[in-house]
Amino acid sequence: MSKDSEAVKAALGQLPAALAETVSLATPITVSRIEGRDQAVPVLREVAESFGIGEPEFVATDEQRAYVTFVGRGQGHDVGLLAVLTHGSADTYSAVDLYARPYPFVKPVRDHLATSDKRFHNDLDLSAPYEPTGPPGGFLTDPPGLPALSADVAFHSPVLTDTASGNELVGAILMAVQEVSGAPRFRVANRFGNTSVLLYDATVHGHTWQLGLVIGLDGNDEIADMRVYSRPWPVAALFRGEVYKLLRDRLGPQYWQGENPLVALGED
């Protein structure tokens, strides 16, 4: 079996032997990490089934990690999932970190799972600032330089329900993002051919918001496509509410499908 195939199967919970007995799992729809293979594998399978995951759209591996993106159909909506698997010892993965998009379509998946699995129902406590314990590896000393946006760049947001296109609009959205969540703290920045993968943390209402960015580059080495995935979902909800207040006059209702963004802020 190739490394790519192994990573895909491990991310879906179909290859338990590829996961360390003590594997640590973070999902987009729980706040706390799930510890141990016996606990992680059923959750990976539940997530894959509920997200309607099919074949992977992107797979890349290096000496430290494997990266897999999927598209699916969860509770009647198109959703995306990014899996980052960290290599441990004995040719197994010691950690799996899952990120998803977009929040308004991820929430119904979480709500569906919560009806039958208390792990998705009870894990909601944001009474204290959320500080994640992974993914492994810490932060980069120097932030990576990002290429320029192409004229017709497509931006697939972790909270918007439609694709934003064009460097002027996408640039305005990215400025609003930084106003709400501050400068990113990068954990990973790797390039695989014309695709780059970055993992970073931001801050919303004092809580850490974790994000994965997959960038597609065009022939001029400019950003043609940006797909951003995030976790955990309660912090994504807070971010959506704040960015809505900045962008609601510019972005139409197709970008704000689902629950009123202000509900998460208690301002509805």
Summary tags:
268 residues; alpha+beta; six-stranded mixed sheet; 6 helices; 12 strands
Task: Characterise this structure.
The chain is an alpha+beta fold. It has helices spanning 3-11, 37-50, 103-114, 118-122, 167-181, 233-247, and strands at residues 19-26, 34-35, 56-61, 65-74, 77-87, 93-101, 149-156, 164-165, 185-192, 195-204, 207-217, 223-231. Helix 3 runs antiparallel to helix 6 and helix 5 packs across helix 6. The protein starts with a helix and ends in a 21-residue tail after the last helix.
Quickly describe the structure:
With 268 residues, this protein is an alpha+beta fold. The protein is built from 6 helices and 12 strands. A 6-stranded mixed sheet has the order 2-1-6-5-4-3.
How is the largest sheet built, in terms of strand order?
Answer: 2-1-6-5-4-3
Low-pLDDT regions: none
Rounded mean pLDDT is: 94
- General form: globular
Number of helices: 6
Kindly, what is the distance between the CA atoms of the first and last residues, rounded to a whole number of angstroms? 52 Å
Q: Could you state the order of secondary-structure elements as H and E?
A: HEEHEEEEHHEEHEEEEH
Set down the secondary structure blueprint.
Layout: H1 3-11, E1 19-26, E2 34-35, H2 37-50, E3 56-61, E4 65-74, E5 77-87, E6 93-101, H3 103-114, H4 118-122, E7 149-156, E8 164-165, H5 167-181, E9 185-192, E10 195-204, E11 207-217, E12 223-231, H6 233-247
Parallel strand pairs: 1-6, 7-12
Antiparallel strand pairs: 1-2, 3-4, 4-5, 5-6, 7-8, 9-10, 10-11, 11-12
